[in-house]
Known about the structure:
By secondary structure, the protein is an alpha/beta fold. It has helices at 17-20, 26-46, 66-71, 83-91, 131-141, 157-170, 187-196, 214-222; strands spanning 54-58, 75-80, 99-103, 116-122, 142-153, 199-209, 231-234, 240-247.
Amino acid sequence: MANAIINNAFYDDLDERWYNDDGHIIGLLKAESRLKAVYVREIFARENVSAHAKVLDIGCGAGLISNKLAVDGYEMFGIDQSASSVAVAERHAPKGSKVHYTAGNAFELPYEDNSFDAVMLLDFLEHVEEPGRAIREASRVLKPGGIILFYTFNRTFIAGLLAVKAVEFIAKDCPKNFHLLRMFIKPGELNDMLKLAGIKGLDLRGLRPMIFHWPFLASVLGRKVHKRFDFKFTSNLSLGYMGFGKKD
């Protein structure tokens, strides 16, 4: 599978399943997003990112996190290569909030230099062949002193087992090549990419599913994602991990 191509096309066909189909594999992403939003809010509070800051969500999908943050008052900008996913994000944007979605290329962002107070790369870097290039482009549009947040998977045996094989087993309709182990990123590799982009990494935190929890067992037995499937933070970075850095 070393030469397999990541499957990013299936997102185009999800439509309202992004929000309404807990049985689909996207249910895992929804469950992760709940905890990711907690982390982002924590870091914004710690780093004094104001409630009216401009935040860019690269690889925003259907706005699972951007729409949550828009409720807090942040001016959210989301970009994704999937035009249909962006359309879903727009339909679910909170009324009266400042949310701007566009379909576009993460390697050629349609924004001026130093435009944003924070940039998010969540569940994105393991879906592109040149993650370092994407980080450099994200850094270009980030203001000096701005915050960049990320979430990705570690390239380990356990990540291959859980984030690839177990996911394929749990979701009977899991699309082929939803994840590829070869595209997962070790923390040291990511830190090198950040340095090359002028970003100083400041924090890393692991995420893992709540295994000793009925929804996890129900998901395995029923071979679909239980709507209460959940994740928790951990100091162990061997599966998925979040973090943030600051632009010099």
